[in-house]
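Notes from hallway chat w/ T.B., transcribed later so I don't forget. T.B. wanted the structure written out for a chain they're using in a teaching module, and asked if we could keep both sequence and structure tokens in one place. Agreed to drop them here.
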Amino acid sequence: MIIKSLELADFRNYDNLKIDFDRGTNILYGDNAQGKTNILEAIYVSATTKSHKGSKDKEIIGFGKEEAHIRTILEKDNAEYRVDMHLRKNRSKGIAIDGQKIKRASDLIGRLNVVFFSPEDLSIIKNGPSERRRFMDMELCQLDHIYLNSLSKYNKLVVERNKVLKDLYDHPENSVLLDVQDKQLCEYGSVIIKARDKFIKELNEIISPIHQKLTGGKELLSVYYEPNVEYDDLEKKLIAARKKDIYTKQTTVGPHKDDFSFIIGAPEGIDIRKYGSQGQQRTASLSLKLSEIEIVKRSKKENPVLLLDDVLSELDSNRQNYLLNTIGDIQTIITCTGLDEFVNNRFEIDKLFKVTDGTVSSEN
């Protein structure tokens, strides 16, 4: 899988852009706030329908404009595909694949698998559980459409159930809705819990050897799934928590409360979310992102496209070298402010782009 080209119209600070990528390593360099990250964001939106920043469509559209367009040309299994995305301020986005409109945005997910790595990802270990769930969800949604569908329906149900709980004082007759919603939550929630459990087990097989190499064999890292509730106990726990939910006006039980832990020296090791040094947390985060690449390879039998957003400046030279040497035959698009990391390490660059205030020029 590679991205051959990207075209943008009225996307962030780009009025019009056409950029052709090499199938190897592509470097976008320039000063801060010139638009480098916006190019990676557009690719990520093309793959997942969402911004990696959590931005809404209306925030992505160029200032003073009503709509934006993204066109991505992909190559997969020696065949070429065109993905067109039409972002509108006050309406849902329109998406077409090879000129054919798709009814649901979710039908696009999985066509293009990307791994996005930014400096913020280096804090995923020490930050709150919502960020770790988001990492797991974004990966599973790209790999498993059943999970994607179940998660989408589950999240909507939680929002609807919370609204019923908040309105229950004024509308006690709506309590019957909770019984219906709880059955649906159990249906979709059990799918989510089972898939996450399987995902963490697969992740453990991959992340442990990667982390050992990164630490020179000094640390053994294990990941443990911490479900808020086991899938076969979900219905019972929801019923038991009904009074508490009515009092707090929110759904307190379910996979939307899950987390996973990172333990060095398991089983009697330390939980680096709480007790690890910053260096240990950042190294574990790098191991996690590198594992994401391997998970896609195993699941999809193809390489993802790797997007590195100014992350090299956050790593020491040893970790920079490990990351760059791991890329191998993966198409990679890297943003950076300077080229010192590549020059000093004599790392091969296949295509170089200078980004200046919303314009991109190709250089030798």
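Follow-up for T.B.: The longest helix spans residues 175-214. Might be a good example for the class.
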